[in-house]
């Protein structure tokens, strides 16, 4: 879902959801949100809000990259509104296509993948106007028992009733239903609320374990993957394949441009901040992407503009 503002230099948020049987993968930039209402009444978020006001880590990243974080200052020095970053004045720390902000506003998505139990569940994807009015819980509760299409309308209605503003109120509801059942939207929870903390388990790398199968059978959500870092080397992981070097051809791992062997800069290679012991290992970056990477990660020397 894209939420476009007017103006040629304005960007957008994006929330991308792939449903493959019981596996749900969400990649998100900005402050639109995707929540999961699992069978049994456990509501969880599959996105994080890239808002400076609420996200301490992102505030640190932006200031480390040379951006300033502060509120709008009106006459008399009075500060108003949410935290924004300057230049640009955006209250988001990540977005796509914002042209008039600094390089520290990055389009790197938070990615999360979960596996639902075979009881299924409901996804509610909505833009920031909905979440300004409703908590994830409230949105989920407001539409339980309704089929998906009516549920989306009900969430928008509820948001308007609560806050009265129609700005950025887009909502999509997707029900993931077991194939042998007819339409069966999530039912209101019975006595499961005490178990909620247990139902949503943290990272599990061994999805085939007996434990997870057992838990799956009683309606849990299994977390398969989560990555929200803006740090490239962290996202690519330590076990990233270096097979590309055996072909004799190097390509930039980000933009895929071909590189002469002398041109490639290792993703581990070092600024003075680097603690890596393997600056000659792949994956490799072109000079352009290396500059962007450094800007993203707060390693841009002050005063140097990235073209
Ligand atoms: Zn590149």
Automatic annotation (TrEMBL):
One Pfam family recorded for the sequence: PP2C
GO molecular function: protein serine/threonine phosphatase activity
Gene3D superfamilies reported for this sequence: PPM-type phosphatase domain
Stretches assigned to the PPM-type phosphatase domain: 1-176
Lineage: superkingdom: Eukaryota
Protein name: PPM-type phosphatase domain-containing protein
């Amino acid at each position: 879902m894209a939420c476009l503002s007017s103006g040629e230099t304005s960007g957008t948020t994006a929330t991308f959801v792939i449903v493959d049987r019981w596996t749900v993968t969400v990649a998100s930039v900005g402050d639109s949100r995707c929540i999961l209402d699992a069978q049994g009444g456990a509501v969880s978020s599959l996105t994080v809000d890239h808002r400076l006001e609420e996200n301490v880590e992102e505030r640190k990243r932006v200031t480390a990259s040379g951006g300033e974080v502060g509120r709008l200052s009106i006459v008399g020095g009075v500060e108003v509104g949410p935290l924004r970053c300057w230049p640009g004045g955006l209250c988001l720390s990540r977005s796509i296509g914002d042209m008039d902000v600094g390089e520290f506003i990055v389009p790197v998505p938070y990615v999360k993948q979960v596996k639902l139990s075979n009881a299924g569940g409901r996804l509610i994807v909505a833009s920031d106007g909905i979440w300004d009015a409703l908590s994830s819980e409230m949105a989920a509760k407001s539409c339980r028992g309704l089929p998906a299409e009516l549920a989306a309308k009900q969430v928008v209605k509820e948001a308007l009733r609560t806050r009265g503003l129609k700005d950025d109120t887009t909502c999509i509801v997707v029900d993931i239903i077991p194939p042998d059942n007819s339409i069966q939207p999530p039912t209101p929870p019975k006595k499961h609320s005490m178990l909620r903390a247990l139902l949503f388990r943290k990272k599990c790398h061994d999805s085939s374990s007996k434990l997870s199968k057992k838990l799956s059978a009683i309606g849990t959500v299994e977390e398969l993957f989560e990555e929200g870092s803006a740090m490239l080397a962290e996202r690519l992981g330590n076990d990233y394949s270096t097979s590309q070097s055996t072909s004799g051809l190097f390509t930039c791992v980000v933009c895929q441009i071909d590189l002469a062997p002398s041109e490639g800069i290792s993703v581990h290679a070092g600024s003075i901040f680097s603690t890596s012991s393997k600056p000659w290992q792949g994956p490799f970056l072109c000079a352009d992407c290396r500059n962007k990477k450094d800007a993203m990660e707060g390693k841009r020397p002050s005063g140097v503009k990235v073209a």
